[in-house]
From TrEMBL:
PROSITE patterns: PROKAR_LIPOPROTEIN. The lineage of its organism: Bacteria, Bacillati, Bacillota, Bacilli, Bacillales. InterPro entries: Bact_solute-bd_prot1, SBP. This is ABC transporter substrate-binding protein. Pfam families: SBP_bac_8. The keyword Signal applies. It is found in: Cell envelope.
Length: 435
């Protein structure tokens, strides 16, 4: 996945886009910036080449631009010129910024012109990206975080393989049983996304004004009870050495998990295919929903991953070409292929009827966890997810706060209070710049 906490690696070439030559005889060229590295990059390239082979009018050039953070920063740097892409994949937390940037043509324009039937998409996915009454981008790769556990280690510790822990206390208990012979029960990367999701799981909003959905957010809630509960629990596990602190990168927890050094970790469902393939023949991988406190209010998860934005400083032909590619990517066949080869869940309902999806679920029942978690989420502003223009910066501030609490530099309350204050200030400054 292209999360900030992934190490950007790709076999794909990294270049800057060149402007498309357009005439009646040659196809419209689309530059597509994305953040899919490693295996995800390979699957993305396959979808691009399938689209290019399927017709002659539009040719897409996929350009890996680093992590979501890196790609968005390059996008920001390109906004005053035409050197940017025709189409860009932006993580969910970049949504408010992309709209405010005025650099995009909302996909709603093409949806309306084309009479594209939105009811074929999952409502709880489109609701995330529906801001200001319209769909500004098209969801493409959607994920949520799940618990991955090593079933063999569970067995050796005398734990029930088919009843994974689902509450904070259950995780702590299981981790205690699993921490032996130099191995740790768990490790959770210091990834702000997990904190955002812990809020939703407890039915709590992350910022004010209905999570920034009813009016632009003006205040961070990261120091409220939901945050404090999550961080206090997390820190207690690190303090009693049942959870290792391996830093911010999910790549590092993934490596420790693959090596059998930790029995449980949190990661995006985007990593699922890679994780089960790596473990094949070594140990059995179990999956479970993101944990929550036993007394949490009803909540769920927020749609993670990324969506696709059409930029508005390219020709109409290029923008239409980008829309054609988007339609291809949202087809049941493309989404089915994408889902089974990654772990991102389909955005298109009919993808579930595709035989490869059915076969895959039989072979890898783990693919159902994230889908069930999404469908089981109570629809409210907490699970619709927060929006704020400074979300990428806010995420990093929260990661700094988690780090300070886990390292014992500050109490969870003090670390979160400071983070909330600094995010609220940043939101205030940002709001002044938005017309
Ligand atoms: O790694 P991904 O693509 O599942 O995305 C995770 C987060 O939603 C990124 O903000």
């Amino acid at each position: 996945c292209g999360g900030a906490n992934e190490t950007a690696q790709s076999s794909n070439k990294e270049t800057t886009g060149s402007s498309a030559k357009e005439n009646a005889a040659s196809p419209v060229k689309i530059t597509f910036w994305h953040s899919m590295s490693g295996e995800l990059g390979t699957v993305t390239d396959k979808l691009i080449s399938d689209f290019n082979a399927s017709q002659k009018n539009v040719q897409v050039e996929g350009i890996f631009q680093g992590t979501y953070d890196e790609s968005l920063n390059k996008m920001k740097a390109s906004m005053d010129s035409k050197s940017g892409p025709s189409l860009i994949q932006v993580y969910e937390i970049g949504s408010r910024y992309m709209i405010d940037s005025k650099a995009i043509t909302p996909v709603q324009k093409f949806i309306d012109a084309d009479k594209y039937d939105l009811s074929q998409l999952e409502e709880n996915i489109t609701q995330y990206y529906t801001i200001g009454g319209k769909l500004n981008s098209m969801p493409f790769n959607t994920s949520n975080p799940i618990l991955y556990y090593n079933k063999d280690m569970f067995k050796a510790a005398g734990l029930d393989l088919e009843k994974p822990p689902v509450t904070f206390d259950e995780i702590t208990k299981a981790a205690q049983a699993l921490s032996k012979d130099g191995k740790a029960g768990a490790s959770f990367a210091i990834y702000g996304w997990f904190m955002e999701q812990f809020f939703a799981k407890q039915g709590a909003e992350y910022v004010n004004n209905g999570n920034g959905r009813t009016a632009p957010a003006t205040e961070s809630y990261v120091n409220k009870e939901a945050g404090l509960k999550a961080l206090t629990w997390w820190k207690s596990m690190v303090d009693n050495k049942t959870a290792l602190n391996l830093g911010r990168k999910t790549d590092d927890t993934k490596k420790a998990f693959a090596a059998g050094q930790i029995a449980m970790m949190l990661d995006s469902t985007a990593s699922l295919k890679g994780i089960v393939s790596t473990a094949e023949g070594k140990f059995q991988v179990g999956t479970a929903p993101l944990p929550k406190p036993a007394d949490a209010a009803e909540g769920g998860v927020v749609v993670g991953g990324a969506s696709l934005y059409i930029t508005n400083n390219k020709s109409e032909a290029e923008q239409k070409g980008a829309w054609e590619f988007i339609k291809f990517l949202t087809s049941p066949q493309s989404q089915a292929y994408w889902h089974v080869n990654t772990g991102y869940f389909p955005i298109t309902k009919k993808a579930y009827d595709e035989q490869i999806v059915k076969d895959n679920l039989v072979k890898y029942p783990q693919f159902k966890t994230a889908v069930d978690q999404l469908h089981g989420s109570k629809a409210n502003t907490a699970t619709q997810g927060a929006v704020m223009g400074v979300f990428p910066e806010a995420r990093q501030i929260v990661e700094g706060a988690i780090e300070e609490a886990l390292n014992g530099k500050k109490t969870p309350q003090a670390a979160l209070d400071e983070a909330a204050k600094s995010i609220t200030e940043k939101i205030g400054k940002y709001n002044q710049t938005v017309k």
